[in-house]
Protein 1
Amino acid sequence: GNSVTQMEGPVTLSEEAFLTINCTYTATGYPSLFWYVQYPGEGLQLLLKATKADDKGSNKGFEATYRKETTSFHLEKGSVQVSDSAVYFCALSDNDYKLSFGAGTTVTVRA
Amino acid sequence: ETGVTQTPRHLVMGMTNKKSLKCEQHLGHNAMYWYKQSAKKPLELMFVYSLEERVENNSVPSRFSPECPNSSHLFLHLHTLQPEDSALYLCASSQDPGEWGETQYFGPGTRLLVL
């Protein structure tokens, strides 16, 4: 079956630090990959996505590249801000409506 | 209103109560979803409706009863819940279920506490 494994948090950083959240997946087909973000007290928002190998998704300074050879979709941002404090979820869908989510990584950015 | 809205945002209920959660999407989408988000667990898909027909019922206990009267509204009726049902319940919608790379749009959730 499909599954997503992402690095456990919590992750605490200082402003302007580099952020990486690792995500690897297992899928039977050729999935689409997503990063969702959940700010405190809110629902999930799509941050970025990639639908085929070597695609790079990007948004709000975040990037992730779909690596089929390593079955990975790591999230990166070069310089984080306090407003990036949130829970980040990696997810995949394998050509249907079902999203398989990772457990989430809590990121706290300190001023 | 835009996007996906959910009411109430917070709910406290006893184990013998009956309550309903409401979700409304203003995006013209054809599919709607209920998820359960518990602490330290991945999101769990509960129900999926496509064009008002239920297409997924993910082994959810019968004390949770979904209703989708039209493509814009989704309800989750709750009765005789257990304390372990306390969680954040998220509603989502998408344009066409099964479409490649389909994005789901989430509401803010209802924080449920069962006493």
Protein 2
Amino acid sequence: EAQVTQNPRYLITVTGKKLTVTCSQNMNHEYMSWYRQDPGLGLRQIYYSMNVEVTDKGDVPEGYKVSRKEKRNFPLILESPSPNQTSLYFCASSLVGQDPLTNYGYTFGSGTRLTVV
Amino acid sequence: GEDVEQSLFLSVREGDSSVINCTYTDSSSTYLYWYKQEPGAGLQLLTYIFSNMDMKQDQRLTVLLNKKDKHLSLRIADTQTGDSAIYFCAETITSGTYKYIFGTGTRLKVLA
């Protein structure tokens, strides 16, 4: 089944304790991205990657790191989490291109609800 | 600048049609999308339209694109209680960069 797998689904951690949220896709998609979703703010992009070893900042990158060593994996790293990073996080992937007959929409993971206390 | 705007709430009666609207500012959008998010779940792609199209129909869903006014709409015919969710409009910009921009989402409530 074509999917984006995120782990864990739920995580409660303490301020300053490094954590990693994993994301893996099995569709050979070039583009991968991390978003956070907060009430009233919609989806905000944290980082994205156009391909292996190519990553770029989104709209809210502060406090986050990513890596793209393999095409299928795109982990999100919080080196020193703070309470303002409490949020619902989504990983997503898609193809890249401009063919009118091709679907370039995102496939989203199920989300990771992170609480930093 | 790049911005996608949607109204926050919409309430309709079961069996009626729902129309969710979206406006965007970047005229270089290549694709426009509608996603659905049910409670506790990720976003699911409902439909998409290429920027050189005016309309796309897929079963109960009709997407209308007015490029001149930068307006996108999603019509759901015969709305059911299972359609209650948050609907996100999004655009892809591919000139000079490759970027997705999402709206803030419209919460659709279907009344029985």
Protein 3
Amino acid sequence: DIVMTQSPDSLAVSLGERATINCKSSQSVLYSSNNKNFLAWYQQKPGQPPKLLIYWASIRESGVPDRFSGSGSGTDFTLTISSLQAEDVAVYYCQQCYSTPLTFGGGTKVEIK
Amino acid sequence: QLQLHESGPGLVKPSETLSLTCTVSGGSISTDNYYWGWLRQPPENGLEWLGNVYYGGSTYYNPSLKSRVTISVDKSKNQFSLKLTSVTAADTAFYYCARGPYAVRGAAYFDFWGQGTLVTVSS
């Protein structure tokens, strides 16, 4: 199984400041055949299901604000919120979609400082 | 707009079988290149993938569930279902159904999710 490790577990950021979340996979999730990284990011607010933000490591899902961006390749990935808004308070998860069993990181809780 | 809705008992007794159905509306389950999945999340905990099914019947399961899980599809009703046998308190969780596009050998991210349903295992 591919183990996904997120850091930090939680972070507090001032409104308008940058938030950075890291995700590391235990093996590469880069498909050589199409040069895509099979890594997704989700946002989950209390009482709601996860919402897809980013897929293939850096492609923003339709309707997601452009302050959210994903980067990285191979085993190391980052989700960046460029200017934190109050509505961004949530838990963020990464997920590898390279192979089954599909696995998720443990989550990062983002709060307002 | 595609919508998914989970339904089934909210309380299951230990050792019995958990059965849930996901009804898909606003789109067809019989669409090429989309898998349909079940995931769960214990309260205040992380996400676990249970398995995926394709409308043609292909399935992929999480080996951690040790053959307790079965996912099936009913194209005529635009539904897919989850059965989890021999449940224990550890199976208490929010259960979600979701759509997985562009899957490779059953591996996908999930772009549409149901609201989730809490299933409690207790006598």
